[in-house]
Amino acid sequence: MQSLISEKGQLLNLANIRATPNEVAEASSSDAHHLTAIQWLVCAVACLGFAFDLYETLMMPLVMRPVLGALGNLRPGMPSFNLWAGLLFFIPSAVGGVFGLLGGYLADLVGRRRVLVWSILLYGASACAASYSTSLHTFLVLRCATMIGVYVEYVAGVTWLAELFCDSKQRETVLGFAQGFFSVGGLMVTGAYCLAVTYAERLPTILARHEAWRYTLLSGTIPALPLLLVRPFLPESPFWRERKVRGMLKRPSVRELFRPALLKTTVVVTLLAACSFALVYGAIQHTVRMIPGLPQVRNLAPRQVEQRVSGVQLFQELGGLAGRVVFALFIVRIVTQRVRAWVFFLPSLAVFSWLYFFAATHSLGFVHLGIFVASLLFNGLHSLWGSYLPRVYPTHLRGTGDSFAMNIGGRTVGASSALLTTQLANVMPGAAASTQLAYAAAAVSLLACIVGLIASIWLCEPDGNRLPD
Predict the structure, then answer these.
(1) pTM of full prediction above 0.85
(2) How many whole angstroms separate alpha carbon 252 and alpha carbon 281?
(3) What is the largest CA-CA distance in the chain?
(4) Number of domains composing the chain
(5) Burial class (CB in 10 A: 0-12, 13-18, 19+), 284
(6) Looking at the domain assignment, is residue 429 inside a domain?
(7) How many whole angstroms separate alpha carbon 63 and alpha carbon 372?
């Protein structure tokens, strides 16, 4: 049975928060619906980490066009522009996914907290260095380093948070609301880019230039500093540490994910994660590149165009936040995991088709509405997997299993849809590059929804409400 700690014993000073094996930060069963001081602190730091994970990730759609123009002299509509756009979306995500799997393995092997701290340091330092890039190849390498840090941090953070709570309803509710802070990070980076575009000329030069994309990348260093200072003082996961101290923790192995008892779960959830992430990498993240081709935008000054782009990104992140809240308040009450998946995949068929076949080529107002709902649906799916995965893998495989599904399935296989979209755009009908891109995104998202709906038929249900030992 997991060790318990009283509320009184958790009134620790911040400097003494590094808990000993006897200071397990977990609520007692008689007080399961009240968070302790340690739990509040861990939740707050996890929320902050999730916010800045997406902050780093969503820089790429915003800065894509200016980066390719400044470092490669490439323009929308050029085949080389589409190729590099696909590569900058896919390669950092794929590399981050592979190393993210290693991070999940290390989180199971050496603990959640240690992996978190190093991942934050990596993505903060690489984001800073990327703002000083002088070539596309250098920029690509540094973006790979940033994504490695982000993907490792996410898996360790979700695993750490899930193991903090015994009560299943409390655990799912906390995970649902905590993951809502991803969209807060999206709102923050949208604001940062808008400010950089508006006030770039007033800021100190970077490499003798006033370029908004460089300031946006540089801002990615800021969140790493407070997180790096606070997280070393946080307690290790009580669930993981107790088993480690007792010698009950087996050595993690990727091979174990494919043993008969876990094979179906691993294959199905990895495929579903790939379909879910195909919606964002194959469609949502390309939306801002369609905006300059809209009738209401194409004749505006460059600064005004970028401000309209920021506006679309704002609606996207508001939709993402709404999706997280909807999941935490309503979808979490649905017992069957398969039905939860259908709630998001079924409407996605209609919403993504309408957004990219029609709205993205006709009206900025329609895009605002469509991207809000599309982002709501994707972020609901993302919250679903964050809640589901910790419940189907045992403690010594929890980080590894979560990482395999999300990083290999979602951020490697799913992210390959970015290349598929950008290459399809070269052969799609349409008079403008933005129209061809919209049609390509529609085709890819439609395929992802259909495969996701079919695969969810075989989605395994967790065995009971407790986390597997």
Answers:
(1) no
(2) 30
(3) 68
(4) 1
(5) buried
(6) yes
(7) 20
The tokens describing 363, both together, are 């009206």
Domain membership of residue 21 (yes or no) is: no
d(CA 135, CA 118) in angstroms, rounded, equals 27
- Spatial neighbors of 252 by CB under 8 A, at least 6 apart, are 105, 108, 109, 396, 397, 399, 400
User: Residue 75 is part of a domain; what is its CATH number?
Assistant: 1.20.1250.20
- 10 in a structural domain: no
Using CB atoms within 10 Å of the CB of residue 381, give its burial: 0 to 12 exposed, 13 to 18 middle, 19+ buried.
Answer: buried
Which residues lie closer than 8 Å to 351 by C-beta, 6 or more apart?
370, 373, 374, 377
Q: pLDDT tens for residues 328-347?
A: 788 778 878 899 999 999 99
Closest CA to 101 of 121, 117, 120, 115: 115
The single-letter DSSP state of residue 229 is: H
What are the structure tokens assigned to 19, written together? 């808990």
Q: Is residue 90 part of a domain?
A: yes
DSSP per residue, 282-310: TTGGGGGGTGGGSTTTTTS-HHHHHHHHH
Domain span including residue 199: 33-458
The identity of residue 446, as a single letter, is: L
pLDDT, tens digit, 9 for 90 and up, residues 4-55: 333 333 333 333 334 433 343 343 333 445 777 777 877 887 787 788 888 8
Q: Report the alpha-carbon distance of residue 377 to residue 389 in Å, rounded.
A: 19
